[in-house]
Amino acid sequence: MTGPTHVAIAISCGMLAGAQGLSIALLAAGALLPDLDTHKSIIGRIFLPISIPLGRWLGHRGAFHAFWLWGLVMLAGIIYRPMAMIGAGALLHVASDCWTVSGVRAMTPFSSKLFILFQRSWRFKTGGNAELGILLIAGTLAWTGYKIGTLGGLSATLGYFLKAPKIMAEEYRRKGLEMCSIEGKFRYSSGRTIEGEWLIIGMVRGKVSFLIDEKIITDGNQGELLRARLICSEKQWESVKLNGWGVSRKEAFFLSDNKWFRAKPGDYVFGQVIGEEIVVDLAPDKLDLKHF
C-alpha cells in the first residue's frame, strides 16, 4: 500500500476507537514508519540518509515489517504511552500490507514465510484501482469517526440518535461535573407527557435528576423519560461537601438522603452542594468546608 492509504486506515481506526488529537497524529506517524526501509516511500524520501542503508541492509517488507518489532514498540507504551500509539499505527501498516499481492515477511528474521490475507483474487496491487477504493473507504470511515468523536464516542452517538434514556444516563455519569441538559420527552406518573430541554442536576442511584418547571424530577420516581438526548456544555459545576450546614448566598443544589434539593439565596444547605458559583456562610461551631 502507499503512504496515504496507510495513514487513512490508521486514522479511521483511531477515530472509530475514540482516539483524539495527539493520539491520532502518533497513529498516523506509526503507520508510515515501516516504510522507512525503502527510499521510494514518503517517509523514506524525507529521511534518505536512513532509508537507503536501511533498505540495503534489511530489504523492503522484511524485518522493518515484522509483527514482533512493532509489537515490542506497542508494549513499550506501558512505560511511555505515546509508543503504544506509534506501535499500533505500524502494526496496522503491516497487517494491511498482508492484503497486497506480494504479502509481507512479517516474522523476519525468524521466518522468511510470506504472510498473506485472503485468496489471490481478493488481494490487490499497491497503487492500483483497488487501493484507491480502499483509500476512499478509509477516508470516509475517518470522517465518520471524527463525527462520532465530536459527539462523545460511539455510545454517545448511539444515544444521540436513538434518544435512549439508559444510554443518556450512562454517558452523563461519565461527564463528571460537566453541566449538561436533557433534550427529550417525559411522562408523568399521571400520564401527562411533555417535551423540552431540562437542566440535569445530578444522579441518584443511577437515575438522573433534572429541573422541570423549576422542580427537581428524578427519572423513575415522579415519572419516566421516554426519549432522552444528552446535551453538554463546556461549563463545570462547582462542588463542595459540607461537614455540618450553612446558608447559601447564591442559588445551589444539595444532595441529602438520596434526593436532590434546590436552595435559593438565604436557604440552608448541607451535604454535597453544587452550583455555578458556591458561596456559603457556615454555621457557628461547625466543621470546615471541604472541596472535592
Description:
The protein has nine helices and eleven strands. With 292 residues, the chain is an alpha+beta fold. It has three domains: 3-150, no CATH class; 155-236, SH3 type barrels (Roll); 238-291, no CATH class. Helix 1 (3-16) packs antiparallel against helix 2 (22-32) and helix 5 runs antiparallel to helix 6 (82-97). Mean pLDDT is 83; it is low at 286-292.
Defining traits:
292 residues; alpha+beta; SH3 type barrels; five-stranded antiparallel beta sheet; 28% strand; elongated; disordered C terminus
Number of domains: 3
What is the CA–CA distance across the termini? 51 Å
Determine Rg (CA atoms, Å): 28 Å
Question: What is the makeup of the main sheet?
Answer: 6 strands, antiparallel
- In terms of per-residue confidence, which ranges show pLDDT below 50 for 5 or more consecutive residues? 286-292
Which sequence of SSEs, written as H and E, runs from N to C? HHHHHHHHHEEEEEEEEEEE
Task: Kindly estimate the percentage of residues that lie in beta strands according to DSSP.
Answer: 25-35%
Task: Give the total of beta strands.
Answer: 11
pLDDT averaged residue by residue: 83
What is the tally of helical segments? 9
Helix content: 25-40%
- What is the 3D shape? elongated
